[in-house]
Specification:
With 124 residues, the chain is mainly β. It is 0% helix and 48% strand. Strands 2, 4, 5, 6, 9, 10 and 11 form a seven-stranded mixed sheet that branches. Strands 1-3-8-7 form a four-stranded antiparallel sheet, with no helix packed on it. The protein is globular.
Length: 124
């Protein structure tokens, strides 16, 4: 499975962005998918995950209440809507997928497939 993320950019604090990630194969509908991020000098951080059906989601502490993950299996696409962005949200955001992960799987090494990353920069 190849993942192609897009939608990053430069925004001001308080604004919103929506990231998209398209999977290369329709079989990805049975994959748990999610997002991680990595800021300069920091470890990769779990942001959110969604089950293959879309019925279950899980968020990292920094995303709760501000970010929403969703998916459209007809388009093999997962989305991350980020509201009320803060400068601390500045990072490269990576789309991930794995056939065995649960939405509560937050360790990056548990995900087999990674996209190339999309940069999000939030200015104050």
């Amino acid at each position: 499975v190849q993942l192609q993320a897009s939608g990053g950019g430069v925004v001001q604090a308080g604004e919103s962005l929506r990231l998209s990630c398209v999977a290369s194969r329709r079989t990805s509908v049975r994959y748990c998918m999610g997002w991680f991020r990595q800021a300069p000098g920091k470890d990769r951080e779990f942001v959110a995950a969604i089950s293959w059906s879309g019925g279950s989601t899980h968020y990292g502490d920094s995303a709760k209440g501000r970010f929403t993950i969703s998916r459209d299996n007809d388009r093999s696409t997962v989305y991350l809507l980020m509201n009320r962005l803060e400068p601390d949200d500045t990072a490269v955001y990576y789309c991930v997928a794995d056939a065995w992960a649960l939405v509560t799987t937050t360790r990056p090494e548990s995900y087999d497939y990674w996209g190339q990353g999309t940069q999000v920069t939030v200015s104050s």
